[in-house]
Amino acid sequence: MILARELPKRTIALVLAGGRGSRLMDLTDRRAKPAVYFGGKFRIIDFALSNCINSGIRRIGVLTQYKSHSLLRHLQRGWNFLQGAHNEFIDLLPAQQRVNEAFWYRGTADAITQNIDILRAYEPEYILVLAGDHIYKQDYSLMLLDHVESQAKVTVGCIEVPRMEGVALGVMHVDEHRRITDFLEKPADPPAIPGKPDRALGSMGIYVFDAEYLYRLLEKDLGDDASEHDFGKNLIPEIVGDGGAIAHPLNLSSIPAQTRNRPYWRDVGTVDSFWAANLDLAGDMPELNLYDTDWPVWTYQEQLPPAKFVPDERGLNGETSNVLISGGCVVVGSNIGRSVLFSNVKVHSCCTISEAVIMPDCVIGRGARLSKVVMDRGCVIPDGMVIGEDARTDSERFHRSEKGVVLVTREMLDRLPSS
């Protein structure tokens, strides 16, 4: 009898965290997508790593490439609590040209190929490949058990999504036994689920392999000059063609168990989806529970004083509702609704802020009005500035998304003419 709690100890998790995430625009100019701030005090990668720890997987490799300094610093400061003496670790695996000195990581599969010697030294039985840029809670031990019991060559995590969201994902068809019969990577016109014309079955970028099988697959792929050395484009479709791929729907292992009729998973790969997922957390009853002590989200956080609200110079207090406010914030007599304020945000008096995601160390000047805004770290908003009320003005000064979310960065503010 196979016990789910035993399998994580025989597994290495590899978190693919080297991508730029260009659809997040200027938010990833200085950092990789997994290092982008999320939810008031976290980074996006914290969710995949926390799932590993909570699932009992304590041997983890993080593969980095694009502008990784911010991510590496976060991991070194916040994820150094594992016990090396007990064979627990988070190994940082930057691109090192280990296989061929002519190439850095050329694709998701190649990133692992270039670290095969390191993986073999760990002697895992199973390898869990994870994307480091999605928001969700999942018990990976249940997915490992499903993989072993099904005797699949690869088990692919999947979830139903609105059909057109499939343009950014791998999209698959499955039979009645969950065997994947077709797999398309980022199709321009995603195929719908039979009987559900507005839905597609999307890959979560999560794969479970028997280690020895994966090694053979990667070595074969390395010798294929026509390959792009990518799981979604090359390896998974090949395994699907051989009939060896099984789908694992998130509703079989999402956390908490009572959410499995409607599991939570977000690809926060665009400014609009990033803004919406953050504001979801400010709702009355958010689908993603950050207050669940049975499945906590771990992170690094600076030691900061509590948030503080004080009246303005006239003695008037502002109003707040549905707001996440992190440590070190000071709000002076301002009205804030349905927003997320990260650490060390200072809001001066008489401001009106709604539907805003404001990252650490920002300063909002007196009398500013902000609506439907994502503000990158360290922005200083001048007194009286208005953002989010006039589409034309916003587009001239900042980046305005298709759905009207205004992205503001320090560089954009620096380019504005001085008054």
TrEMBL record:
Name the residues that span the membrane: none
Q: Where is the Nucleotidyl transferase domain?
A: 13-281
Q: What class of enzyme is it?
A: transferase
Domain Glucose-1-phosphate adenylyltransferase/Bifunctional protein GlmU-like C-terminal hexapeptide, by residue range, is: 305-408
Q: Which reaction does it catalyse?
A: alpha-D-glucose 1-phosphate + ATP + H(+) = ADP-alpha-D-glucose + diphosphate
Which PROSITE patterns does the entry link to?
ADP_GLC_PYROPHOSPH_1, ADP_GLC_PYROPHOSPH_2
Q: Which residues form the signal peptide?
A: none
Q: Which residues bind alpha-D-glucose 1-phosphate?
A: 105, 170, 185-186, 203
Q: In which pathway does it act?
A: Glycan biosynthesis; glycogen biosynthesis
Q: List the residue(s) that the UniProt entry marks as the site Could play a key role in the communication between the regulatory and the substrate sites.
A: 65, 104
Q: Name one GO molecular function term.
A: ATP binding
Task: State the source organism's domain of life.
Answer: Bacteria
- Known EC number: 2.7.7.27
- Alphabetically list the UniProt keywords: ATP-binding, Carbohydrate metabolism, Glycogen biosynthesis, Glycogen metabolism, Nucleotide-binding, Nucleotidyltransferase, Transferase
GO:BP terms for this protein? glycogen biosynthetic process
What Pfam families does UniProt report for this protein, alphabetically? Answer: Hexapep_GlmU, NTP_transferase
Q: Which SUPFAM superfamilies match?
A: Nucleotide-diphospho-sugar transferases, Trimeric LpxA-like enzymes
Job description of the protein:
Involved in the biosynthesis of ADP-glucose, a building block required for the elongation reactions to produce glycogen. Catalyzes the reaction between ATP and alpha-D-glucose 1-phosphate (G1P) to produce pyrophosphate and ADP-Glc.
| Subunit comment | Homotetramer.
Q: Family, per the entry? A: Belongs to the bacterial/plant glucose-1-phosphate adenylyltransferase family.
Stored HAMAP family? GlgC
Q: Which NCBIfam families match?
A: glgC, PRK00725.1, PRK00844.1
| Protein name listed in UniProt | Glucose-1-phosphate adenylyltransferase
Q: Which organism is it from?
A: Ramlibacter monticola
